[in-house]
Amino acid sequence: MLERELTISNRLGLHARATAKLVQTLAPFRCGCTLAAKGREVNAKSIMGVMLLAAGQGTSVLVRMDGDDEMEAMQAVVELFERRFDEDG
């Protein structure tokens, strides 16, 4: 299992478009993935679950991967966060 704490830095946080991008990024991977923030833990492959976090800009989230391709999945998520979900110009 891998864990990494990341901070949401895009201006709008995990709104619908950013959440959809996260779920699409994780879709090809077989490992399990969860996001934890604000006392909640959700399946990161579920749009509804991630939306329930209501995680805005500056929110720290704990990303957990568990499975065969967890390293590759974590790298993809880290890169997505670093790119600010391809938003903010």
List keywords for this structure.
89 residues; 34% helix
Description:
Helix 1 (16-26) runs antiparallel to helix 3 (70-82). The protein is an alpha+beta fold. The chain has helices at residues 16-26, 47-52, 70-82; strands spanning 2-7, 32-37, 40-43, 60-66. The model has no long low-confidence stretch (mean pLDDT 96). The N and C termini lie far apart (34 Å). Strands 1-4-2-3 form a 4-stranded antiparallel β-sheet. It is globular. It has a single domain, classed as HPr-like (Histidine-containing Protein, Chain: A), CATH 3.30.1340. The protein is built from 3 helices and 4 strands. Keywords: Cytoplasm, Phosphotransferase system. Belongs to the HPr family. One of its GO terms (cellular component) is cytoplasm. It comes from Pseudoxanthomonas dokdonensis. Pfam families: PTS-HPr (PF00381).
